[in-house]
Write a structure and sequence with these properties.
This protein is mostly beta strands. It has a single domain (about 1-195), classed as Sandwich (Jelly Rolls), CATH 2.60.120. The chain has two helices and 13 strands. It has helices spanning about 20-35, 85-95, and strands spanning about 1-5, 10-15, 50-55, 60-65, 65-70, 100-110, 115, 130-135, 135-140, 150-155, 160-165, 175-180, 190-195. A seven-stranded antiparallel β-sheet has the order 1-2-11-8-13-6-3, covered by helices on one side. A four-stranded antiparallel β-sheet has the order 7-12-9-10, with no helix packed on it. Strands 4-5 form a two-stranded antiparallel sheet. Strand 4 (about 60-65) and strand 5 form a beta hairpin. The protein is globular, with a radius of gyration of 15 Å. It binds 2-oxoglutaric acid (AKG) and manganese (II) ion. 2-oxoglutaric acid binds next to strand 6, strand 8, strand 9, strand 12 and strand 13.
């Protein structure tokens, strides 16, 4: 394990063992059985390139009316609880006394990416966002508190964990591309990213 700090984001390289990563994949599979992945529409009318679902009291959804947290999956079911092995990571690295209320699960297939954005749909920006990477490597870009300007990029690999908090809580970030097939954790390839968030 190596801990880096890039623009205030704390990056724990290789925090999770292979066994821990496998346990997380199993936990995600359990979530997806109840709350299937879907391809959200952006408010601008373009489908997102990532597929997503959530666990927890709230799930993050996007459609023509905007981005927001909802207490139900688009299929009408409540989101499943956040699995214990995922909560354990929050407890280890977040430094927060609160519990996460959402675990957003993003799946990146071969051509998926995520544009530069801030995570700003939550009610308390003193609470960090904790991000867990599984599967293929993803090129993560870290910018500034305002759009534009210089950026730094780092490859996030399976088992890496990033804490986006403190003064960097509203820093712009995104994923430019993935290295499809770089990991054998997921049988069909691709990258899973889990982000834990306190919503209220
Ligand atoms: O996939 C990642 O590493 C970042 C995901 C992200 O920024 C988000 O879901 O808001
Ligand atoms: Mn984000």
């Amino acid at each position: 394990m190596e801990k880096l700090n890039i623009r205030g984001f704390e990056i724990y390289k290789s925090l999770l063992s292979q066994e821990a990563q496998q346990a997380l994949v199993k936990a995600v599979r359990g979530v997806v059985e109840v709350a299937p992945m879907f391809s959200p529409m952006t408010p601008y009318g373009k489908p997102m390139r990532v597929k997503m679902t959530s666990a927890g009291q709230f799930g993050w959804v996007s459609d023509r009316t905007g981005y927001r947290y909802e207490q139900k999956h688009p299929n009408g079911n409540a989101w499943p609880a956040i699995p214990e092995p995922i909560l354990d990571i929050w407890n280890e690295v977040s430094g927060s006394a609160r519990a996460p209320e959402c675990c957003l699960i993003n799946y990146y297939g071969e051509d998926a990416r995520m544009g530069m954005h801030q995570d700003r749909d939550e009610g308390d920006f003193s609470q960090p966002v904790v991000s867990i990477s599984l599967g293929d490597d993803g090129l993560f870009r870290i910018g500034n508190l305002e759009r534009g300007g210089k950026t730094d990029s780092i490859w996030l690999s399976s088992g890496d964990v990033v804490v986006m908090g403190g003064d960097a809580r509203l820093t712009y970030h995104g994923v430019d591309r993935i290295r499809f097939g770089s990991s054998r954790l997921l049988a069909k390839g691709g990258r899973l990213n889990l982000t834990l968030r306190v919503v209220r």
